[in-house]
UniProtKB/TrEMBL annotation:
Species annotation: Blautia aquisgranensis
Keywords: ATP-binding, DNA damage, DNA recombination, DNA repair, DNA-binding, Helicase, Hydrolase, Isomerase, Metal-binding, Nucleotide-binding, Zinc
Name of the protein in its database record: DNA helicase RecQ
InterPro entries named in the record: DEAD/DEAH_box_helicase_dom, DNA_helicase_ATP-dep_RecQ, DNA_helicase_ATP-dep_RecQ_bac, Helicase_ATP-bd, Helicase_C-like, HRDC-like_sf, HRDC_dom, HRDC_dom_sf
Catalytic reaction list: Couples ATP hydrolysis with the unwinding of duplex DNA by translocating in the 3'-5' direction
Swiss-Prot/TrEMBL cofactor(s): Zn(2+); Mg(2+)
Amino acid sequence: MTKQELLKTHFGYDTFREGQETVIDALLEGRDVLAVMPTGAGKSICYQVPALMMKGITLVISPLISLMKDQVRSLNQAGISAAYLNSSLTQGQYFTALRYAKAGRYPIIYVAPERLTTEAFLDFARNVEISMIAVDEAHCVSQWGQDFRPSYLKIAEFIELLPKRPVISAFTATATKEVREDIARLLGLQDPFCTTTGFDRENLYFAVKTPKDKYKEVHDYVMEHPDDSGIIYCLTRKLVEEVSEKLIRDRISATRYHAGLSDEERRNNQDDFIYDRCHVMVATNAFGMGIDKSDVRYVIHYNMPKNMEGYYQEAGRAGRDGDPAECILLYSGKDVVTNQYLIERSQDNQEMDAATWRLVRERDQERLKQMTFYCFTHDCLREYILKYFGEYGKSYCGNCLNCQTEFEEYDVAEEAAAMVRCVENCGQRYGINVILDTLRGASTAKIRQYHMEENPSYGVCAKMPAHKLRQIFNYLVLRGYLHLSDDGYTIVKLTISSKELLEDNAHITMKLPKEQEVRKKEKRSR
Ligand code: ADP
Ligand code: ZN
């Protein structure tokens, strides 16, 4: 059968999704593959179809027993003989399965990584033809991945022990370059065909907002969408409690979910949401794994999450049915500080030596920075996401807040120079708020405490509204003219580019929403 016929007869689909066919073709040509695809994009078809076209057995390595069971069940339903080998089988069942496998009964076998190098399994694997190995959740092999599994390191060891090297395919939804390089190296991929697809979800609308009152923003949104199901993600359990209590008090049918609740309450609340007894789920990122509710119409992030991977996975729970859905992120500067705190604290529950920990923290900080830039950018948000994950988007999608806002280039050279001077004047010792309050000439407790009234920068931007000043500040950070220190206190530092802004003919413009018109004219007439 051709791959199209297999797709139709076994899986019931007429066409391949974007990316599936190129992966299948590469594998059939005998080339290793490293495919980056988000959850739900359809990775399984990429190895299941070629597995059925190759002569020998395909081993699929997967970290989760429940995932293996699901996959094997649906393959069997599709009329494909498959089995799994993991610790959920009794010894009797395990050896029976191995015997059948040896007799050539299963073209596809799912196996847990820790089984690979056991004597019984090796004995089997060396005496049959293994034509392909597909590694699911391949990022588990990397220490930099979200969930490192030492047993994944056995995969390369196992392959070395085989009489003939099979084709190897690796699949993951994690995008960072380090993780991809680790996967290729630690699995021993040879000149792999690398591809990134399926990240673009056209039906999702993206927006970043910086409301003064986040709760009001959420409340109003929910009231405007009374019949829709939505998820509100909060960074901490405490906030989940707070927001859900307020919503319930405001007579909105909301429920909550976080790891601090009893199993029973979590199960009940989850069911209430899935079966539409409650419309709004307020939750930490503990909610969502393995939950398949296709008609979630919006996902609001009450706080900025700690990286784009997390954000996109959570936001992506909206609109699984393909109908329009909205993903809104509510940003505030405090979110950066909270995330930094969480990154610092994460060492407590990890067994790592000091050097590894430093590297992991550095990478976490870098990811947090990329996340922050998503909140700062005035360019197309979808383009930003796709670029982050290594895909190429258009610079205008038409379906995000930035694409729908009319921006205008605005000369900010004066303010930029003032900010750099201010940071310099206070010896690079203070945080964002002190810097901005100084420029505005505000009189807060900190300003008085640090005697900023005497600073030459005090009040030089007094005419500029606070939120505009902050936008310009964010823009300078985004462009690398200023830097936020990574020590958990977000101290503003100069960079090697800062000086450029102090030159006489310095030229820097940024996009600001069109309402700036008035101010621009005012400035020209001065
Ligand atoms: P992943 O492993 O990437 O999370 P799955 O392989 O489980 O995703 O696929 C997600 C869903 O998409 C499944 O319901 C699957 O049946 C469906 N799917 C996969 N490929 C296609 C296709 N070519 N056409 C339509 N649906 C598909
Ligand atoms: Zn856009």
